[in-house]
Amino acid sequence: MSTNTTSQPNKAIDEQALIDRIFMDESAGEEGFDLVDPPASLQAKLYAIPQASKQPAPLSRATISRWFGAAALVASVVIALLLSPQPAPVNQEALQAQKDFELALHYLNKANKKAASSVTSTINTELERSTVNPIVKTLTNLSSS
């Protein structure tokens, strides 16, 4: 179909004509399917597909350093999570005892204030009765005489 002297556009037309010829008439079956040799350019492209897919893409230094950086970051996060202290389980009985203790201290504070007020009042009354009243009485008697 094609010769070696054809130009690039003619090669593409020949390749397309071959593809159309192979795949257009599916109803003909195998007996209507004549095997033909594809043009050399198409054959080279078809054979290059599996070879190109087997070759891994080359890794650049930047890609490798990014992977090492990400691995180091993940490792440091995992180590930090493993070494961090776990919260102690909450003991309901201990919490209730703490609340009861706070309530008892509150009542003791109120009782202390009442006792202090009562003691202060009693001391003031007794001081007034034992010292202030006799002094006032004595001064009143002296001034009236």
From TrEMBL:
The organism sits in which domain of life? Bacteria
Name of protein: Uncharacterized protein
This protein's species is Saccharophagus degradans (strain 2-40 / ATCC 43961 / DSM 17024)
